[in-house]
Amino acid sequence: MRPVRVVHLGLGGFFRAHQAWYTGAAPDAEQWGIAAFTGRSPDLADQLRRQDGKYTLIVRGPAHDEMSVQRAVVAAHSGTDHAVWCDYLARPEVAVVTLTVTEAAYRRDRTGDLDLDDPGIRADLEALRHGGDPLTVPGRLVAGLAARRAARAGSLAVVSCDNLPGNGPATEQVIGGLAEAVEPALAAWITEHVSFVTTMVDRITPRTTADDVRAVATRTGWADQVPVVTEPFTEWVLGGEFPSGRPAWEAAGARFADDVHPYETRKLFLLNGGHSLLAYAGSALGHDTIAEAVTDPVCRRWLDQWWDEAVRHVPLPAADLTTYRAALLERFANPRIRHTLAQIAADGSQKLPIRVLPVVRAERAAGRTPAGAARILAAWIEHLRGIGAPVDDAAAGPYRDRAGSVREVITLLAPDLADDEALLTAIGGACRTG
Ligand SMILES: NC(=O)c1ccc[n+]([C@@H]2O[C@H](COP(=O)([O-])OP(=O)(O)OC[C@H]3O[C@@H](n4cnc5c(N)ncnc54)[C@H](O)[C@@H]3O)[C@@H](O)[C@H]2O)c1
Ligand SMILES: O=P(O)(O)OC[C@@H](O)[C@@H](O)[C@H](O)[C@H](O)CO
């Protein structure tokens, strides 16, 4: 069996379509088994264990599916198996920890620091000080790294694969903040022994449906209960050190760059910002999926308007951005990928500050009022008012309470923009209600 040298937290669809695919496609795949942990629920881990970690990857093109059995995951565990998690991290041969845990799991405050007022973080601080089991992602990472220090197992790389700008430093900041609060010497050990790698990850991976499960059984004869559907396109750009080695991901198409920022900005603004626009404004028009929304001429015009604003703030050549936009339109329009607007609409209060607000601020600094960005904010406010996709965001409460007033929502979301009358007027004007 492949030895476990990578540990993953956030076992779900995207990890299996992306990082696990690159690892399995690398020429040294036999040396790099992955032990993967779910966030909390044991279900996916239980099923994968029944399948010896194997699952079918369905690469869904506009015309047909390609299916292959993926074998990089050699062990699957429930996120609640804390002792097992610490045991892996304490092994010297484990060289890489990867993460796909959603933006919200980083528990950051508005400045990007760890939110020490978060009840989960407060509970984890107690657990970490008194030998209990932490539950949050920062808590579990700090506990795992403490176990590694105690075992003198040496250095490793932590690789965030979530849609956060500067996800390496962002992870370092929350882990460092929590470790410092637990024990300053642990924080110092982490600084010396842990490399936080920054990545741009891209492969549209919708939730698996019952039809997908049936399609695999029909085509292959294997009753795989947990296949993953993804698009043909895939991209991974990484920047940072791997002090104890890594799979030869570059041989499978990953790129290593000194500066990941231009690529992550391009992706966050154009792809993820475009997704958020379609999720809120498209669902308000009655659409269910990205492919449906992007083929509606009204949504398409709004998407172009947003992209025209956003590209001004992506530090890449104009020709590259034109090519990227054209490719994105094809990806979004793939009629066989059922990427639901409801899935993408989740956690808006965590996503919009990353995908949309930087463009708003840059446009306002340049003296322009960005109508495309204002439309995204307006559509999100209307979503909070009950229009379009349902609200699925643990942090949405205070925003919903204020949803009747554009000014109050923006004051909470971005206090620096609260007195920007031109912007508030543009957002209010783009709202269809109130
Ligand atoms: N799906 C995509 O197209 C895609 C593409 C690029 C990046 N991503 C990144 O990957 C993340 C996961 O996407 P997915 O499609 O695999 O979702 P998923 O729902 O299939 O899996 C998410 C995993 O993260 C865990 N998780 C969720 N919230 C958590 C929390 N608060 N604390 C701890 N663990 C938590 C879940 O338990 C699960 O194991 C996204 O949020 C995004 O940051 C996804
Ligand atoms: O995964 P999220 O929740 O951060 O965002 C939803 C989508 O925008 C996202 O998953 C994209 O499909 C993905 O980032 C494409 O690579």
From TrEMBL:
Residues 5-250 form the Mannitol dehydrogenase N-terminal domain. The keyword NADP does not apply. Keywords: NAD, Oxidoreductase. GO terms for biological process: mannitol metabolic process. GO terms for molecular function: mannitol-1-phosphate 5-dehydrogenase activity. Pfam families: Mannitol_dh (PF01232), Mannitol_dh_C (PF08125). Gene3D superfamilies: N-(1-d-carboxylethyl)-l-norvaline Dehydrogenase, domain 2, NAD(P)-binding Rossmann-like Domain. Its EC number is 1.1.1.17. It comes from the Bacteria. InterPro entries: 6-PGluconate_DH-like_C_sf, 6PGD_dom2, Mannitol_DH, Mannitol_DH/Oxidoreductase, Mannitol_DH_C, Mannitol_DH_CS, Mannitol_DH_N, NAD(P)-bd_dom_sf. The keyword NAD applies. Belongs to the mannitol dehydrogenase family. Residues 259-386 form the Mannitol dehydrogenase C-terminal domain. It is an enzyme of class 1 (oxidoreductase). This is Mannitol-1-phosphate 5-dehydrogenase. It catalyses: D-mannitol 1-phosphate + NAD(+) = beta-D-fructose 6-phosphate + NADH + H(+).
